[in-house]
Design a protein that fits this description.
The chain is built from 5 helices and 5 strands. With 185 residues, it is α/β, with parallel strands linked by helices. 37% of the residues are buried.
């Protein structure tokens, strides 16, 4: 029975997102005692501080999903050498109003995949800067800058053999990170 709950925040809204596929593939590599759930960001309005006193239901729902999780897995594409606007928007919503952030102390993992040869290295670094400000202990090693080669996923959507062992190890390390830090909160 799962006893660790991890929220997945995918920084892409695209229907055929390779990052959403990566997120799903990682859940299949995780130990049995971990339950993943996708924290939905597609319905969040653009963040506007004027709305802090009366947050939209979609914002309240998203914040609740993060608050109930033991850890957060961020799976992000890279747009123009940074994180997508929809991901930053979600992060801003869940950090507000001032003093009511749901991020503080929540252990995090950062990963992403791209068709480019450097993967999502710049987006991951920018995201790590934001997470440091939010007081989220973030797994530093191993880093994973993944390139979406044709054989990266098998026909069933699983991580292909060339990357499976590495990503299974990454996932196990991330789960151990969440377990270590979730017990401190």
């Amino acid at each position: 029975m799962p006893n660790i709950r991890i929220a997945i925040v995918t920084g892409s809204l695209r229907q055929d997102s390779i990052n959403a596929s990566l997120a799903e593939g990682l859940t299949r590599l995780a130990p049995q005692h971990v339950a993943f759930h996708h924290a939905e960001i597609s319905e969040l309005p653009l963040y506007n501080q004027d709305d802090d006193a009366a947050q939209a239901e979609s914002v309240k729902r998203f914040k609740s999903q993060i608050a109930e999780a033991d850890g957060v897995l961020f799976v992000t594409p890279e747009y123009n050498r940074s994180i997508p606007g929809v991901l930053k928007n979600a992060i801003d919503h869940a950090s507000r109003p001032y003093g009511e952030s749901v991020w503080g102390g929540k252990p995090a993992g950062v990963i992403g995949i791209s068709v480019g040869s450097i993967g999502t290295a710049m987006a991951q670094q920018h995201l790590r800067n934001v997470l440091a400000f939010l007081d989220m202990p973030t797994l530093a090693q191993p880093e994973a800058f993944l390139q979406a080669a044709p054989e990266f996923f098998d026909d069933d959507g699983n991580i292909g053999p060339a990357s499976r062992d590495f990503l299974k190890g990454w996932t196990e390390k991330f789960v151990a990170w969440v377990e270590k830090h979730a017990n401190q909160n």
